[in-house]
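Quick note —
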Amino acid sequence: MRILLWHGYLLGGTGSNVYTRALARAWQRAGHEVVVLCQEPHPERFDLGGAAVVRPRLDGPLPVFVLDAYEDARPQLLPEMSRADRDRFVEQNAQAVRDQGPADLLVTNHVLLGGPVGAASGLPYVVKAHGSELEFAMRGNAELCAWGRESLAGARAVLAGSEHVVSVLEELVGPDASRVHVVPPGVDVEHLRPRDRQEALAGLLAECRQDPPNPADAYDQRRPDEGGAERLAAFLAGERPTVLYVGKLSAEKGVALLLEALRGLDARAVVVGFGPARAELEAAAGPDVLFTGALEHRHLAHLWPLADVSVTPSVFPEAFGMVAAEAASCGSAPLVARHSGLAEVAAGLEQEYPAHLRHLAAFARGDAADLHAKLAALLALSDGDRAQVQAGARRAAERLWSWESIAERVLAAGAT
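Predicted structure written out below.
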């Protein structure tokens, strides 16, 4: 098949950016011809399995759901954009799609603005809904919800990463239920795998030594902090229990809750990511917490196996919980807030855990005391119970979330 994959943003980081990279790579490896259309200025930095990359021209702002800095684009919150700017963005991207010539299928990310781009392309299209556009841009905005509903009418299928996203789609947009398919995000289970401590630490430090300089006077928040190898080597020395957070550093992600829950635990924590709350969070953290800045999957493939527990403490609804699934693939015990799409990740883990350990997959949303108690219990597990949790997490990742199976399910939905 010839597949066009439209993504309005970058390829680095987490969430839909990872989703785009992984789908392109899985389809290319399966023998399909894939073209990725995105705003990534440095596609050569990413493994897309040989997929071609096209960057559509933009004459106006880049519509976003949360404001971040971009190297050479001017972001603007989607609800604040004028209709003229939104229409221009859609037409320029739809034209870029049409310029690629015939294709068997167009897959677009986000109800807005992936739905309108797909509808204007003239190609058969599938729309992958993510939680960000629904919760941060469309909720409470009747005009945007109506636009999303109209743009999904012609889609062959609408993909939701979890039953939670299906419920939000029904609430805000109301698409034809017969065309909505639950297809979770996936995990590269070959690259993200358990490793022994010595191998993992050596691999992590080797990757950090490959990082380009990122000095304070020219700091790029989307790249790892300067001196990462030395800082991580010192911080991770010894056998002390380790807790890991990977994700955005913003209020809705619950990192402050994690810092509160860590108090009184004999554990160290590594916080990976960037975002507007970093300075505040770092000021509130003690010496047992290390902030690394953004890391890539080449780093995380070695860092996750070093973590006894990987926490996803979001207080805001999540479409899924990709970082928790990725941690599971590495054998790091995920501990997620029990709500929205994260609860579905917990359910998958619980299916593979022995009965007496199933309660350790999740904690009550926003409850620092429960998070503290679950962390303490996980860190105090016997060697036998810890091995069962690690093996169960890995089985869940292989059974439920491998990218090969997810890529096939996306194409199957688009064939209907």
